[in-house]
């Protein structure tokens, strides 16, 4: 069984702070996707990473895929209240279903 | 724009009733997935289709659940004889097989409450 563990489960910070959330597994994935989900809505895709060691930047968000393709991190610089939400990582094995972590709930206060 | 849409967005039903949800994927996407998400958890896979063929079903999909994608476009998920444990957010996603990664795009979900 493939499992993705996310940490921390919950993070409450002030506007302007930096943060990193982690996604770890003992399994190798061919791709890893990060989503953000707001209450009562579906997950919205942020990024897909596919190459070990790959780093992608999306404005203030930096995503990294581990060299062994078993782990990933999401770093947010100067967090804003609009970044509040549930951050989910999901691992894929080619053309198949996704395995999701439980998510990191981020609360950014003004 | 034509992202993934789901209908209804919310459904409240009494235990023992049948419910049906609809998902319309992104128009050129040939793969369609159903997931279930409960509070505090990430989405859990239920089943997926490639075109009209149902290729995989999770052990979570009991015999009270049935999904169809008759023409390879929209899909329906039916739950018969609903139970309180069926209360969850039901999410649909679609993807286009043939690109280098199977990136899935999600709809807004249908929130089911079984009383």
Short description:
The complex is a heterodimer of chains A (110) and B (115). Chain A contains no helices and eleven strands. Chain A is globular.
Content of β-strand of chain B? over 45%
Overall spatial form of chain B: globular
Count of DSSP-assigned helices of chain B: 0
Secondary structure tally, helices of chain A: 0
Largest interface: A-B, 26 and 26 residues
By helix and strand content of chain B, what is the structural category?
Answer: mainly beta
Give a short account of the largest sheet of chain B: 7 strands, mixed
Pattern of helices and strands of chain B: EEEEEEEEEEE
Give the integer mean of the pLDDT values of chain A.
93
What does this structure look like?
The complex is a heterodimer of chains A (110) and B (115). Chain A has 110 residues and is mainly beta. Chain A has strands at residues 5-7, 10-14, 19-24, 31-37, 44-49, 55-58, 61-65, 71-76, 85-92, 98-100, 104-109. Chain A is globular and about 40 Å long. Chain B has strands at residues 5-7, 10-13, 19-24, 31-37, 44-50, 53-57, 65-68, 75-79, 88-95, 105-106, 110-114. In chain B, the strands form 2 sheets. In chain B, strands 2, 4, 5, 6, 9, 10 and 11 form a 7-stranded mixed β-sheet that branches. At the A-B interface, strand 4, strand 5, strand 9 and strand 10 of A face strand 5 and strand 10 of B.
Which SSEs are present, and which pair or pack?
The complex is a heterodimer of chains A (110) and B (115).
Chain A: E1 5-7, E2 10-14, E3 19-24, E4 31-37, E5 44-49, E6 55-58, E7 61-65, E8 71-76, E9 85-92, E10 98-100, E11 104-109
Parallel strand pairs in A: 2-11
Antiparallel strand pairs in A: 1-3, 3-8, 4-5, 4-9, 6-7, 7-8, 9-10, 9-11
Chain B: E1 5-7, E2 10-13, E3 19-24, E4 31-37, E5 44-50, E6 53-57, E7 65-68, E8 75-79, E9 88-95, E10 105-106, E11 110-114
Parallel strand pairs in B: 2-11
Antiparallel strand pairs in B: 1-3, 3-8, 4-5, 4-9, 5-6, 7-8, 9-10, 9-11
